[in-house]
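pls read this protein.

:::
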Amino acid sequence: MNSNFTKIIRFILGLILIVFGANKLIMIFNETGFMSLITMPANLKGSIGSIVYILPVVGALEVYIAVLLILKKWVPFALILLAPISVNILLFHFFLDLSSGMIGALVVALLNGILIYKHWPQFKPLFY
């Protein structure tokens, strides 16, 4: 769990989450950010925009999880919090926005899966 490989994976995943989580928060406050350049269908953009709490909550959770991962505090808890978010990111890009962010979604899901595998002894009591 404390190998250099695990540290690098944790740090990379943390950086990815900080960038995309902070971007969601920045987009909410001033309508800028690189994610605002993604072209989505108008009905999808309207649907997501009408539910005003989703992007700030997900962005804040991503930043919180990233801080936990980078500081190595409560890593298994952070990975459990990130699991449904990473699955949702993957499914969103698979079903709704296949062209633009599928590689990033796969990277986040893969890194999360690797870290869950590396910390599996801490998750075993949940399943037995």
